[in-house]
Amino acid sequence: MARPLASASAIAACLVLAIAAASAGDISVRDLTTQLYNADRSRPPQLVGRDLREMDLSGLDFKAANLSNSNLFGADLSGADLSNAQLKGSRLDRVTIIGARFDGADLSDASFLRPSTFSTLAAPSNEAASFVGTKLARARLFGRFNRTSFRGADLSGATLAPFNRTGFIEHIWRTELSGADLSGTNLSRANLTYALLSFANLRGADLSGAVLRKTDLSRADLTGADLTGVDLAEADLDGAVLTGVRGLETALGLDSARNVDKAIR
């Protein structure tokens, strides 16, 4: 007996799946490399909404490309130059960014969860990515950014706190910014709960309204920083430099902060 013909709904479902499969990975590494090579910075490549998941894009000069709302999950961006690129709302989870440059890029509302930032646990400074003057407003970041430069960056409203519990034993359980350069950075209203900021340079940073609950600020330099309305509940201020800070009298949770008497004022 002949089999019955597939229903119209089943055929439609297959077509949808076929279209989705065709759109995934919608450009090859070779074609992308050629496009970037022939591009001019005065007319940045338009790569909005591209699917670049798990691609090897290491060493590429993106020439300030517009990659807004693109998916770069798991991509290798080691040594890549994304300076002044548009990455608004893009997904950069699990990317490898050893030695990458994001200076002046726009990563507003982007997701930057658990990137591979160093080749070893030692976090050598020569492998740190650069985010000088980068826009990261409302972005989600979680990973190891020790010795990384965010000088003059905009991290207003960004979330750097642990976002969930995976159930696995992991070597990182909080965002690490030990020894990072955050001087002149806008961290207003940012959530830095549990963040490791020991020995970080926060000179002149705007931390107004930021959440630093249980944050490690030991030996951090906050000279001239704005701490108006900051939440310091259970934060560690051992050796933190608070010379010339503004708004400390309005800080929340200061009575529960640790080693306040060891801070330098």
Describe the structure.
The longest helix has 16 residues, at about 10-25. Helices cover about 10% and strands about 0% of the residues. The protein has two helices and two strands. It has helices at about 10-25, 30-40; strands at about 110-115, 140. The chain is elongated. By secondary structure, the chain is low in regular secondary structure.
Radius of gyration (CA) equals 22 Å
Number of helices: 2
Strand order of the largest sheet: 1-2
Structural class: little secondary structure
Helix content: under 10%
Instruction: Count all strands and give the number.
Output: 2
Mean pLDDT: 90
Rough shape? elongated
Q: Sheet bearing the most strands, described? A: 2 strands, parallel
Q: Which sequence of SSEs, written as H and E, runs from N to C?
A: HHEE
Tell me the fraction of residues in β-strands, as a range: under 5%
Brief rundown of the structure:
Helix content is 10%, strand content 2%. It is largely without helices or strands.
How do the strands and helices of this protein lay out in sequence?
Blueprint: H1 8-23, H2 29-38, E1 111-113, E2 140-142
Parallel strand pairs: 1-2
List keywords for this structure.
2 strands, 265 residues, 2% strand, little secondary structure, disordered N terminus
